[in-house]
Design goal:
Blueprint lengths: L5 E4 L9 H6 L7 E6 L11 H8 L6 E6 L3 H10 L4 E5 L6 H10 L3 E6 L17 E5 L15 H12 L6 E5 L6 H8 L3 E4 L1 H4 L4 H17 L1
Parallel strand pairs: 1-8, 2-3, 3-4, 4-5, 5-6, 6-7, 7-8
Bound molecules: D-xylitol-5-phosphate and zinc ion.
Length: 223
């Protein structure tokens, strides 16, 4: 049951004037996390599809698009069609998550469902059969550099249990406040994809930071 940790640096903490170079600095990451915010679903605004398309053309790392937007069904397929590896929408913003998953997959990407810290996993168990990724937020979405909310760990444990017992088949991704310390707790609880913004781009050497995070997660998974 060996799981391989996947590290997904978040561009939210990168230098926005140099996105191509910033993607190259994390070339050995598994996914490059691209946080789309619309100023409505979350109180912050970042970048959207045209920027993603420009980055997609040059990034050595597959893009993991996290849409923190209202009406995600309208936009999510465009990110898939543009070549994203994974496109994640928020459960709280979807009226019909299954339809959105279908459209994302039809566009050629993996489909992800994100849950805010207070959103219950059990409410979405049926729907999650149509998804490839479950993104469990370990901070309130909207900003980088916040502290990891440990109270969310039981939700990660429950998700891992459901995957290990064959009830679900998906990546369990955590996002928010993941650093050298908290990654061990998240990995031990059962996450296998780790988003890290400030812990990677805030480091002097992002490549080294990725290697260190990967090693810590791997040790916690086997330990
Ligand atoms: C927050 C974003 C995160 C953010 C994580 O709403 O979804 O992806 O970039 O940043 P850190 O790792 O600094 O908490
Ligand atoms: Zn994110």
């Amino acid at each position: 049951m060996a799981r391989e940790p996947m590290i997904a640096p978040s561009l939210l903490s990168a230098d926005f004037t140099r996105l191509a170079e910033e993607s190259e600095r994390v070339a050995d990451a598994d996914w490059l996390h691209f946080d789309v915010m619309d100023g409505h679903f979350v109180p912050n605004l970042t970048f959207g599809l045209p920027v993603m398309q420009a980055l997609q053309a040059v990034s050595p790392v597959p893009l993991d698009c996290h849409l923190m937007i209202e009406n995600p069904g309208r936009w999510a397929p465009g990110y898939a069609e543009a070549g994203a590896r994974n496109v994640t929408v928020h459960a709280e913003a979807c009226t019909d998550p299954r339809a959105v998953a279908r459209d994302i997959r039809a566009g050629g990407a993996l489909a992800g469902l994100a849950l805010k810290p207070e959103t219950s996993l059990d409410h979405y168990l049926d729907v999650l059969h149509d998804f490839d990724t479950l993104l469990i937020m370990t901070v309130e979405p909207g900003f980088g550099g916040q502290s990891f909310i440990e109270e969310v760990l039981p939700k990660v444990r429950r998700a891992r249990q459901l995957v290990d017992t064959g009830h679900l088949s998906l990546f369990v991704e955590v996002d928010g406040g993941v650093n050298g310390d908290t990654i061990e707790q998240a990995a031990e609880a059962g996450a296998d994809v780790f988003v890290a913004g400030s812990a990677v781009y805030g480091a002097d050497d992002p490549a080294k930071a990725i290697a260190a995070l990967r090693a810590r997660a791997a040790a916690a998974m086997t330990g």
